[in-house]
Amino acid sequence: MTESNGSTPNTTVPDWEKRFRAPRVSLPDWAEDAPDRSLFVSNATGTYELYAWDRATGEQRQVTNRPNGTTDGVLSPDGEWIWWFDDKDGDEFGVWRRQPFGGGTEGAGDALATPGLDASYPAGLALGRDGRTAIVGRSTDEEGTTIHLAVADASPVVIYRHRESAGVGDLSHDGSLIAIEHTEHGDAMHSALRVLRPDGTTVADLDDTKGGAEELGLEVLGFAPVEGDTRLLVGHQRRGRWEPLVWDVVSGEETDLALELPGDVSAEWYPDGSGLLVAHSFEARSELFRYDLGDRELVKVETLTGTVSGATARPDGSVEYLWSSAAQPSSVRSTTGAVVLDPPGLKSPGSVPVEDVWVEGPGGRIHALVQKPAGAEGPFPTVFDIHGGPTWHDSDAFAAGPAAWVDHGYAVVRVNYRGSTGYGREWTDALKHRVGLIELEDIAAVREWAVTSGLADPDRLILTGGSWGGYLTLLGLGVQPDAWTLGLAAVPVADYVTAYHDEMEALKAMDRTLLGGTPEEVPERFEASSPLTYVDAVKAPVYISAGVNDPRCPIRQIDNYVKRLETRGAVHEVYRYDAGHGSLVVDERIKQVRLELEFVERHLGA
């Protein structure tokens, strides 16, 4: 085994590296009662951290400053406080801290936001408009999920507790109603909803998992932003895809919006409660609409073709959104025509556009996204870059990783396998019990198309991905050993049984749902879906990178897999780094990409 050191050569910065180094910003959140106060994430210092932005003065201030970065933050509705989650080196186990919007002691000196609550995994947070109240969700292996009412100068009070996973959804405008998502029924893929009073008593339940053959989920999209309004915006799957409805949690009345859009639909309230900002995701692209609740009219909000990764309606009626395409880097834009945030410094180079491919597979048509070097002819050495999740999807959005491969002469194929979102509930829910094997069937079908179409060189095929994509990479190398030339797995599941026992409780619940039980209850399913089962069949050289503090794909189960490779004398390299499920440090991300490129060059000669 080779332990990589990732040294950085002293050369001119190439385009692929510039894409990682160029300053990026997230869509700014803004305070409900102080809309000139915003909070966003940026990598301006070389590490992703939280920033406060006073729009009235233009002042921007770095809020957090930690070696491994910070991205989880919430701005209080009155705009006075910034809450941020403080974990240890990416392990996702920690406490909420807060500091004044205008500044305070940075980093570890920030005050505990909820004294009396021990460290935990976060399970949602909602802050009251009174500046004193917070609804705090927590998850631990010992307790399961607890949700607390935390009021300034008082001890936190438990208002909900259950062994199964749950989370805080929203707090009503007047603070009298609390919406939570829960999985008390044991299906972590399909939540039910409950609305509580601050004393923990139940106001109403909405549960689409009962009374039918189909398993349907619900999600909290937010209470109406109007004093005394008891309407809750809810996402549902009753017509085979995600759509919004309005539920009056006191009267029980449900208003089905029936928007008749073909893909998954989410929504949020306009600030005056008169309409909804609708986000429609369909076949790897997205678009925005305004839906007027009075005349029930749906009007398109003009955006460029590509992907809207987030959007918010401002008090003046304008919409701000984070947009990109595979060819154009992300930017925060407004329907006023302005670029909302344009960070100074190095600008990210663009990349090549994505091409859509549809391939017939064993479970239906599979959508794949293809990028290839401009002006070159195939067949190409080809990277199959497999997305994580699994309930996620690749889209026509800018991504520095695939662009780096294209820069180096590779074609890149990304597959929205069964389990991906954006293609209907049936496609997303198809994974149960034959976990991993189903996704590999779809990847194999697209691989066959890539080779027979002349795109891909069958002797230079690289399987790669991170998280669930890393898991599918290791599983694919063992289940389909003759199909792949090399494998690159980042933060993967490698030994499913050990991963289950070591991972955070919420992911254990998801695994029980996917596989139908625990490793002790359904050992044959865990064995069939575990890369460790097939490790002796692996022929291709393997590169693995892993965060030593990762609570999602813990390091011990990766070490178990690597030891089996070592025993066989199999060609492999391992890179371990001091972070969790990925890194928020730009130099570290660049280092990891460079190590992967160098590994492929050594073994593929490309």
Beta strand % = 35-45%
Strand order of the largest sheet: 1-37-36-35-34-32-33-31-30
Tell me the Rg in angstroms: 24 Å
Outline: globular
User: What is the total tally of β strands?
Assistant: 37
Structural class: alpha+beta
Uncertain runs = 1-10
Helical residue percent band: 10-25%
Oligomer: single chain
Largest sheet: 9 strands, mixed
Q: Number of helix segments? A: 10
- What value does the average pLDDT take? 95
Tell me the distance between the termini: 22 Å
SSE topology sketch:
Layout: E1 2-3, H1 15-21, E2 29-31, E3 34-42, E4 49-54, E5 60-62, E6 73-75, E7 81-87, E8 94-100, E9 111-112, E10 121-127, E11 133-140, E12 144-151, E13 157-162, E14 166-171, E15 178-182, E16 192-196, E17 202-206, E18 218-223, E19 231-236, E20 243-248, E21 254-256, E22 264-269, E23 275-282, E24 285-292, E25 297-301, E26 307-313, E27 319-324, E28 331-334, E29 339-341, E30 355-361, E31 364-371, E32 380-386, H2 400-407, E33 411-416, H3 425-428, H4 437-452, E34 456-466, H5 468-479, E35 486-490, H6 496-502, H7 505-515, H8 523-529, E36 542-547, H9 555-568, E37 572-577, H10 586-604
Parallel strand pairs: 1-37, 32-33, 32-34, 34-35, 35-36, 36-37
Antiparallel strand pairs: 2-3, 3-4, 4-5, 6-7, 7-8, 8-9, 10-11, 11-12, 12-13, 14-15, 15-16, 16-17, 18-19, 19-20, 20-21, 22-23, 23-24, 24-25, 26-27, 27-28, 28-29, 30-31, 31-33
